[in-house]
Automatic annotation (TrEMBL):
PROSITE patterns: ICLR_ED. The keyword Signal does not apply. SUPFAM superfamilies: GAF domain-like, Winged helix' DNA-binding domain. Residues 65-247 form the IclR-ED domain. One of its GO terms (molecular function) is DNA-binding transcription factor activity. This is IclR family acetate operon transcriptional repressor. GO terms for biological process: negative regulation of DNA-templated transcription. Transmembrane segments: none annotated. PANTHER family: HELIX-TURN-HELIX TRANSCRIPTIONAL REGULATOR, ICLR FAMILY (PTHR30136), HTH-TYPE TRANSCRIPTIONAL REPRESSOR ALLR (PTHR30136:SF24). Keywords: DNA-binding, Transcription, Transcription regulation. InterPro entries: ArsR-like_HTH, GAF-like_dom_sf, HTH_MarR-typ, HTH_MetabolicPath_Reg, Tscrpt_reg_IclR_C, Tscrpt_reg_IclR_N, WH-like_DNA-bd_sf, WH_DNA-bd_sf. The keyword Transcription applies.
Length: 247
């Protein structure tokens, strides 16, 4: 029974990474028979985790259930409860979408979104994952981790997503020093060419990063002077949340 559950979770993870994911491709990736893969996919469908992308031969995609579940992430820290008003205020001040993210390993996961009212915005729903080194949220959190923990997380050659992604370990460490100094992180075209974001870390009572809050916008809308303006705004919002958590 335990192995069956582990297998189903591994399949769910592969579907998430490669959707729309076909049976044959998934079976080959996981070294499983097609019949076993098909049974596992049917079980995940029955449980509401995945659905056919179109017709039955078009592969499988996630349903909204993982996104709904992500809303419970970090509930034990009270993070979501303490961030709602600050996120809404930051969205109203900047006119841009605001994200709350937490770290899971070498990735950050968006767990709450306050959408911009602008008709031109980038859809980035709760549950979306990004590499820490290529996102403002990730760099904000990494900047406040102990050095030995950062060393364990970073490889010498980090994966690149665009020509602007920081892929050298030494260069990223220099970037994290700058983030610590000014209190906010910036990512312009590092994860995707069309995305810009500015983020600040949210700290717990002991000073460890619990998550980060970010302003997230189309890159073409980031004008000269906006980085400092948005950086100050996110830093103030993060400080407000941190003080609320420590009260």
């Amino acid at each position: 029974m335990q192995q069956t559950v582990v297998t189903a979770l591994r399949v769910l993870d592969e579907v998430a990474k490669h959707q729309p994911a076909g049976v044959s491709d998934l079976a080959a990736r996981m070294d499983m028979s097609k019949s076993t893969m098909q049974r596992t996919l049917r079980a995940l469908e029955a449980a509401g985790w995945i659905r056919p992308a179109g017709g039955r031969n078009d592969g499988w995609v996630l349903t909204a259930k993982p996104i709904d579940l992500s809303r419970y992430v970090a509930a034990d820290t009270g993070l979501r409860r303490h961030t709602r008003s600050a996120m809404a205020a930051l969205r109203d001040e900047t006119g841009e979408s605001v994200h709350l993210a937490v770290r899971e390993g070498t990735e950050v996961v968006v767990v709450e979104v306050e959408e911009s009212s602008s008709p031109v915005r980038i859809y980035w729903p709760a549950g979306t994952r990004s590499a820490c080194h290529a996102s403002a949220n990730g760099k904000a959190i990494l900047s406040r981790l102990p050095p030995d923990e950062v060393d364990d997380l970073l490889t010498d050659d980090l994966p690149g997503f665009t020509p602007l992604t920081i892929t050298a370990r030494a260069a990223l460490l220099d970037e994290l020093s700058l983030v610590r100094e000014r209190g906010f992180a910036v990512a312009e075209g590092e994860l995707r060419d069309d995305i810009a974001s500015v983020a600040s870390p949210i700290l717990g009572k002991a000073g460890a990063p619990l998550g980060s809050i970010s302003v997230f916008l189309p890159r073409h809308r980031l004008a000269d002077g906006d980085v400092d303006r948005l950086g100050r705004a996110t830093r103030i919002a993060a400080t407000t949340i941190t003080e609320s958590l420590r009260a």
